[in-house]
Design brief:
The chain has about 160 residues and is an alpha/beta fold. It has one domain (about 1-150): Alpha/beta knot, CATH 3.40.1280.10. Helix content is about 45%, strand content about 20%. The chain has helices at about 15-30, 50-60, 80-95, 110-115, 130-150, and strands spanning about 1-10, 40-45, 70-80, 100-105, 120. Strands 2-1-4-3-5 form a 5-stranded parallel sheet. The relative contact order is 0.24.
């Protein structure tokens, strides 16, 4: 199952970009043996300042057809890492070819776009900068595939 991180904003050269790259490389290397990956980041920018609705349109344009859509949203489901790993494995086992995970801009995702998502996931009630949410998502993807592979990376 290919993973597409469809995100608002460009991540310039930074420690966050280094972490995203590292975790996605790890995810790809471990995941290929378990039917997960490759993962890619698709960035969109609302250069016209159209707000959340414009960002939603841009995000929908880059989501591959037929993708299972997961919205990262503070109102979404809070899971443990093993629960997330099982959910990811379940989507893969259902025969889903593509997973698109959406991260909105500073104001989050447009309500209409959130309503279209197949699933909504949260990192908790705290609000995170979307650049850090991107890093945390990439780490959790790697952690999930590590759990599925039986690797000792995740310790209970």
């Amino acid at each position: 199952m290919r993973v597409h991180l469809c995100v608002v904003g460009r991540l310039r050269r930074s420690p966050e970009l280094d972490l995203v790259t590292d975790y996605l490389d790890r995810f790809d290397k471990t995941g290929r043996n378990f039917g997960l990956g490759p993962a890619q980041v698709i960035e969109v920018e609302d250069k016209k300042g159209g707000g959340m609705a414009a960002e939603a349109d841009l995000l929908l344009r880059v989501v591959p057809k037929g993708s299972l859509i997961v919205a990262m949203d503070e109102r979404g489901k809070v899971m443990t890492s093993p629960e997330f790993a099982n959910k990811l494995g379940g989507w893969r086992d259902m025969g889903r070819q593509d997973l698109a995970v959406l991260i909105g801009g500073a104001d989050g995702l447009d309500p209409g776009l959130r309503a279209q998502a197949d699933y909504s996931l949260s990192f908790g009630k705290l609000v995170w900068p979307h650049m850090l949410a991107r890093v945390m998502l990439c780490e959790q993807l790697y952690r999930a595939v590590s759990i599925l592979s039986g690797s000792p990376y995740h310790r209970v």
